[in-house]
Amino acid sequence: MADLILHHYPTSPFSEKVRLILGYKQLAWKSVIIPGIMPKPDVLALTGGYRKTPFLQVGADIYCDSALIADVLEHLQPVPSLYPEPGKGLARTLAQWADSTLFWTAMAHNLGPRGAAHMFAGAPPEAAKAFSEDRKAMSAGMVRLRPADAAAAYKSYLRRLSDMLDEQPFLLGQVPCIADFSAYHPLWFTRVRTPVVSDILQLTPAVLDWMDRMSAIGHGTMEKFDAAQAIAAAAAADPMPVGHGLLTDSTFQDEHGIPLGSRVSITAESFGPEPTEGELIAATRTHYTLSRTDERAGTVHVHFPRIGYAMKAVAQA
Predict the structure, then answer these.
(1) Could you give the CA distance from residue 197 to residue 89 in angstroms, rounded to a whole number?
(2) pLDDT of the residue at 132
(3) CA distances (Å), 185 to each of 50, 61, 69, 189, in order?
(4) Whether the predicted model's global pTM rises above the 0.90 cut
(5) Residue % of the chain over a pLDDT of 90
């Protein structure tokens, strides 16, 4: 199998989630550092439009969204499992809450006036402005909590997590599961990237102890790579056949009345509305796959989870 290439940047919280999963599964991976804001020409050469962070590349297959990446890594390395029985449904549900409600609550707290000032201390004023404008474009139409409301909700969520840790080392038992990795990364951002507002974590010592256990997992074996090498790797590879790669489900599940082979666009339902267009070659219970061609990367398959993403047909000229 081709190398695992993670496109990320150090302070990206969802990237920290995936880096820890790679460490938990003791996988070797290659690291491509990408820009935190647009423009991202090397990213778009591979994804066709999707520009959120991170994404995983395996040869000419591009896996978007950390939830789908987790499923791919689980298939590649089933032990230790991210979805241990008998509670895998509960683990997935808790992870989805953590990746959405908990994440946006934490980030509204983290990026309040004090946290934002800390993040950009010493940087030129235009850096903060560029970041703000970039994230404004990505979150158009989203309802954002005000910092004071976020702090109140964040405290409540931290107490709920603490309650789950009363008699066990991880959220759902004796070993970490996908819920732990999803709940950890927004709190990691609070602690590491905006420490001036991390006093909120001190209210729940059990959560801090759990965070230490999660951090100790580490990031696995990483090798530096660059965008040009990654694009060349995609161009030199053939995408994995549908149903025979790291996403083995190929059963067509039609919810849109759009047949396979149609030209479609896939768009995140909330944050990061930039569409990816291509030929629909898979629409299963769990994911969509588009085939697209780039002048540098060649033919690639771009994969998205169904949950959190919308598909529509593209009118042909």
Answers:
(1) 33
(2) 87
(3) 21, 25, 15, 6
(4) yes
(5) 87
